[in-house]
Amino acid sequence: MPVTLTIDFIGLQALVIDKNELLVLMVGAGAHHHGGHHGSTMPAHVPRLVTELSSVALGSGSFPPTELVAVPRSRAELAVWDIAGYELTVKGQAERPSSLQFYSGQRKADVRSPRTKGEADDVSWIPDMETVCGSGRLKPELLGEDPPRELVTGRARLTGGTITPGRFARVDGDPRSTPWFSFEPEGEVPYIQAIADVVRYTFKTDDVDVTLSLRPLSGASEREEPLEIVVPRERQDEVTFTLTNFPSDVSALDPAGHFDAFYDLLAEQVKERRRPSPVGGFQAPDPFFCSQARFTG
């Protein structure tokens, strides 16, 4: 029976999605001041990988968690790894590449929030930088062996699975609402839609174990061999990891949000007056903090 691996991506992350792979950049945003049109200062963001401790094998050859966190009112414990300076892959995928599956064109451009499951699975709910500001190509150095650490603190490269929005941004966590966000200042064509704040990667494998590999980005660590996190098949046939990228100091959240950080990743610089950020409309009076955005490589 295949093992199903799910990785939920949450937080300030830049995504490149094509038929060959999913590339996710953990945006640093903490090494310098981002003025932006909001005049906001970005606190440091830290990428962390999380799963239930019972899902993984600890011991010889396995990368030990950075910390263990008890789940309130439960016997479960969470294993947490600080993966700053690493690139995450699934062992064996590079040797057996297969196409990445995702849904595009399932909704019309004027549909602002999902009405059906087909529409909800469309990757267009992840804001597209080309649509937001007219420029979406990443700086080439962000894709190299040693990306600037002030811009990118970690990466993930995955193939052979399925990408869908896993959850939509809410107002005060209200599960009944799927609010719209307007990117302001608006361009010639208004860009208003719901926003996915979880991107879900699902991958099925017949391998004996599921192994996540963490390769140090050049200059980030003295270790040369990839670190491994092993999920033994006998533990369960489904396992979920969450890869987050949030500020290390949540009290430093700026009400303007952190979308400005994405503009530093663009190969073609965008004038400050053409740097929209998502702002809640009448259905969503609150701003949105750590969004994701789609780019081209």
How far apart lie the N and C ends?
35 Å
* Residue share in β-strands: 35-45%
> Taking strands numbered 1, 2, ... along the chain, how are they ordered across the largest sheet?
5-6-4-16-1-13-10-8
Secondary structure tally: strands: 18
Helical segment count: 2
Query: What general outline do the C-alpha atoms trace?
Result: globular
Low-confidence stretches: 31-39, 282-287
Report the mean per-residue pLDDT as an integer. 82
Gyration radius (Cα, Å) is 19 Å
The chain-level structural class is mainly beta
Order of helices and strands: EEEEEEEEHHEEEEEEEEEE
User: Sheet bearing the most strands, described?
Assistant: 8 strands, mixed
Number of domains: 1
Helical amount: under 10%
Provide a short characterization of the protein structure.
The chain has 297 residues and is mainly β.
Structure explained in plain terms:
The strands form three sheets. An eight-stranded mixed sheet has the order 5-6-4-16-1-13-10-8, with no helix packed on it. It has a seven-stranded mixed sheet with strand order 15-14-7-9-3-2-18, with no helix packed on it. It has a three-stranded antiparallel sheet with strand order 12-11-17, with no helix packed on it. The relative contact order is 0.30. The protein has one domain (3-295). It is mostly beta strands and 297 residues long. Helix content is 3%, strand content 36%.
Q: Could you give the topology of this structure?
A:
Layout: E1 3-11, E2 13-17, E3 22-27, E4 45-52, E5 67-70, E6 77-82, E7 86-90, E8 101-102, H1 117-120, H2 129-133, E9 152-158, E10 162-168, E11 181-184, E12 192-193, E13 196-205, E14 209-216, E15 227-232, E16 238-247, E17 277-280, E18 292-295
Parallel strand pairs: 1-16, 2-18, 7-9, 8-10
Antiparallel strand pairs: 1-13, 2-3, 3-9, 4-6, 4-16, 5-6, 7-14, 10-13, 11-12, 11-17, 14-15
